[in-house]
Design a protein that fits this description.
With 147 residues, the protein is mainly alpha-helical. It contains seven helices and no strands.
Length: 147
């Protein structure tokens, strides 16, 4: 992220332009962009201030009003998916993408990890098939060594 020009430079540029020079001359003289000088002077004439605008800060999330609902649904059904939550929110009148819900949960301090309960990996038939395919995979260690 870029840094704002100093107040000292802003004051010198404004004095230079107020002395009768053009914005293009000021930009050349102080080695800044013409756009900076034009915007600076427009803001100065409108507000009377040369201070830089604040940067960054907290951004509003449209999911914040639904905080209790989201936390309750995750606590109630631990393996609920983001698309399912998005569909439930849409039914409540808030259209949001599943990725936005995931980012919101991450900002709230939640993390998502696959569990055996939430996937097929815990099933006995899946485990047997995985072990059987690993035994016959290329480069796998043979079950016994023969000469």
């Amino acid at each position: 992220m870029t840094k704002s020009y100093s107040l000292d430079l802003r004051q010198r540029v404004a004095r230079f332009v107020e002395a009768g020079h053009s914005c293009h001359e000021a930009a050349r003289h102080f080695e800044v962009s013409v756009a900076f000088v034009v915007r600076l002077m427009a803001a100065y004439r409108a507000t009377g201030s040369l201070a830089a605008k604040p940067e960054g800060g907290w951004r509003y999330s449209k999911l914040d009003p639904h905080r209790e609902f989201l936390l309750h649904r995750v606590a109630e059904k631990g393996d609920i998916t983001m698309p399912q939550l998005a569909a439930e929110l849409a039914a409540r009148g808030t259209k949001v993408m599943p990725a936005s819900i995931a980012r919101w949960f991450i900002r709230q301090g939640y993390s998502f990890k696959k569990t055996l309960r939430a996937s097929e990996q815990g099933r006995a038939d899946v485990r047997q098939a995985r072990e059987a395919s690993a035994a016959h995979a290329p480069g796998a260690a043979p079950a016994r060594v023969s000469r």
